[in-house]
Amino acid sequence: MxxxxxxxxxxxxxxxxxxxxxxxxxxxxxxPPPPPAAPDITAxxxxxxxxxxxxxxxxxxxxxxxxxxxxxxxxxxxVEEPPTEAPxxxxxxxxxxxxxxxxxxxxxSQNALGQGLLTLLSREHLDEDTWEEIExxxxxxxxxVQPTQELVERLRERVRVxxxxxxxxxRTLLREELITLVGRDMDRMVKTEPEDRKPGIVLVVGVNGTxxxxxxxxxxxxxxxxxxxxxxxxxxxxxxAAADQLQTWGERVGAxxxxxxxxxxxxxxxxxxxxEGKEMGANVVLIDTAGRLHTKTGLMDELGKVxxxxxxxxxxxxVLLVLDATTGQNGLVQARVFAEVVDITGIVLTKLDGTxxxxxxxxxxxxxxxxxxxxxxxxxxxxLAPFEPEAxxxxxxxx
Length: 399
Known about the structure:
The protein has 399 residues and is α/β, with parallel strands linked by helices.
């Protein structure tokens, strides 16, 4: 019995030992070989990726809000802006004798009238054909039918009485008659200094394309050159960039510009300009009005409204009509329409140095019964000159 028990114990021990050996061998077969030791090399930083290629963000040390230095508010951070240079104020050219200085420019395009008349009058025999040529010359120069007839009649009478006609006598005769025709005694002063109040108020009217806004800016230079302070009213709110254009003109001579929103009420801008001029103690307020509208309201109705609104504060001293001298008789049609709505007190003829014919000065004065007060003789800033009949006629007939 003892032998059987001993045999069983030995068998159990032998089986356990064999099982352990088998399990150990299997474990050794399943374990993969250890990886080779990687060299200790620092890899360069990888380029950033986005989307599916983006790397998992690496953890970095971060500071808590308690560790961050915050401004205490005692010294605000001041950001220095670059200094803005104020526009340089120009000193306009004096207006006294300005037309005389510009006479050469005027005479280049106007000599055809004066020299043509002198040539015809210098003929040995002044027959009916010659006088008809003189009439044609005057009509071609846009003098107008009635003024032409009056001038020819006076010339015929004086030539008949004088008898002899030397070149110098003919030139003197023609000069005197042309000055009479242009109007030596008309009041050509731009009324900007009323005796009982300040400021003087000037409306500038005319269709777009005649140089109206530019003329307003140049007129500001004329007034500043004569020692007056000016406020500009940009009431042409329906033309793109008109207010910017006028403000640029004003800044060049130190004139303040009152403007409103594009497409706004022109009468409101004009009213504010006069109000500002009063508060500033300015000598003159120049108001540039619209030359056309984008609304159903008629242009002439709008101009009448502007004038009525302005006169709630003070009377309008001048209404200057700007005409393009190169349009000739078409300019007279414009003049008639404007004169029906606002009381025109003076005329500004622009582009008189181009292809314009000098006779338009006579024609437009006869048409409206008001004088030409200013003429534009070029593109320069100081090429707007007070009209002087003697200097104008001397430019027509030359030396």
